[in-house]
Structure formats: C-alpha cells, structure tokens
Design a protein that fits this description.
Blueprint: H1 7-22, E1 28-30, H2 45-48, E2 58-62, H3 67-78, E3 82-87, H4 90-98, E4 104-108, H5 114-127, E5 135-138, E6 150-151, E7 154-155, H6 156-178, E8 183-187, H7 213-234, E9 241-246, H8 260-269, H9 277-280, H10 282-289, E10 300-302, E11 305-309, H11 317-331
Parallel strand pairs: 2-3, 2-5, 3-4, 5-8, 8-9, 9-10
Antiparallel strand pairs: 1-11, 6-7, 10-11
Length: about 325
Amino acid sequence: MPKTTTRREFILKSIGYSLASLIPHSLMARMPEFVRSKFNADSTAEEVTAGLDLSDKTVLVTGANSGLGYETMRVLALRGAHVLAAARNMEKAAKAAASVIGNVTPIVCELTDFESVVNCAKSVEKHSLGKPLDVLICNAGIMGGSDLQTVNGLEKQFVVNYLGHFLLAQRLLPRLKAAPQGRLVMVSSGLYTKAPDTGIEFDNLSGKKSYDRFTAYGQSKLAMALFAAEFSQRFSGESVTANALYPGVIQTNLFRNMPWYVKLGFTVGGWAFLKSVEEGAATQCYVASHPSLANVSGHFFADCNPIVLEGPHMSDRELAKNLWRVSLELTESYLN
C-alpha cells in the first residue's frame, strides 16, 4: 500500500520546498580573471568599507527607509558620503535619515509613479548642490502576493523592482557621467532563476495572460541584471560603470507577503542559511564604494566577489537589447 502523507509531513515538506526555492543552488563559478577580494558571505557592510573616506561622494539609495537600503545608507553616511535617502514618501525618508549619523538628505521616490521618479531625479539635482552623482544604488523592491497587481497596465513587481529604476537611471545619467567615476549598482536576486523560460515575457508584462508571484519576481530581478549588462555595453569606455548583485537571503520586509509556511521556515531553520541585514548589505556597499572596482562593469557579484551565473539568459545579448528597447518605449513620455 502507498504510504500516506500526514498533515504534519506535508507542512514540513512544503516548508522545505519553499525555502529551497529561495536559495540558488550551484549559482556561481568564480571568475578567473578577477582577483578575489578578502571578503566573503560573513563580511558586514561596515567591514567592507572600513578605512574608506567617502566624504567627496554623493550617493543615492532607493528604499533607504528599511532593510538593506537602511543599512547601506547608514554605513555609507558613516564613511562620510552625502547620502540621498529615497523612500516612498517624505515621512519614511525623513525618519530614516534622522536616525543615523552623517550627512543624509531625505527625498521621495515612489517607483510606481513615474512622475515621482522624475521629481526624484530633479531633487537629486537640487540637493547635490551642483555636484555630480557618484553612485546610484537601485535597492528598493517588493515581492508580490498571490494575486496579480498592476500599475498602469504592467505587473507591479516589474514596475517597482525594475522599470522605475530604469527610468531613474536614465534621468540621472548626465549626473553620473559628470562624476570622476560614476557607479550604477543594481540589486538583483538569486531568484532570477525563477524567470520565465523566455527570460522576459514581453507579450505578458501585464501578467494578465498568466501570473505567478515567484515567476514575476524572478523576471523583474533578471531584468535588473540584464540592464546592468546592457548598460556596460552601451557605455563601454566611459566613466560610468554598472554592475548587478545578489545580496543573499535576508528576512526583511520584502517577505511580508510570503505564505505562512515560508515564514515559519525562516523562524525554524533560518539560522542555517539566512544572512543578517549587516551581512546582506555588504555586497552593495562593496560594489558601490571599493576603489578596486573603479573600472569593473557589466558583472554580477555575490559575497563581495564577481561570479558567473547559471542559465542562458544572463549572457543573452539580444534579450538585454530588446529589454532596453522596450523599456525606453514604456517610459518614453518621462525621459525628456
């Protein structure tokens, strides 16, 4: 007779499968042409920036009011940078900015509202006091619930995680180019592997043909990495670099819409794989600030080291070019 699965066994298996889906397996192979840094998965944002003087840098961090964005803001300000702390509204941004030591200016960037994104870019011009923008860290993100949500006819995760940042980067490109060495830092995810088989479903960006929260999230995070790769090709030889990264699995507000059994799994077994916020913010702080990466562009980082990713999409130049073209079309009215 076939073995009967008890309710308890079913729940535990569900937890295991769900957690497994959040942890990329065989994600990387080290890139031989790079010298490994001395940092690793246990390094913190403070450790990777120790000894750096960023007092001549202006940095914009989206999603600076909580989680990885907050820790990134805090540490870069601690190292002397003028940090423009962007959040969905001024109340959140101002509260975060006032809670840390250093030169931090709160600004608003609601990524679902392209007018707000444009106004954010204008705020950068105002608050940077005529100085260039040295670093743009596209950190803000959401993970959607089980029900489809759309913004202006597009699936919400695609807009918040990727397209709003694409527009922001385009609007701020002149200020990044004006910096001695501008950096664009795109926070991606190991869940890029959950993207559709085609990579980006250009005929289903609304999500109305089919929708799965993890697939949509993976697509948006794949788009972040493809944008960095394409940016590095288009602006090769210029002073601006673009890189993407995987921060690791960190239990932040990003997971507030996750099923209960995944949240339970974090509580029960998270000690085995979860990073702290301090560790999770390390890679983006490293990529944003470390002098050794001044001429490094178009790569993907994890644990403060460059990596090569699985799957065909990350190296698909045509996919990256098509994404860029479609993104320009979707944001055309707000680019000039």
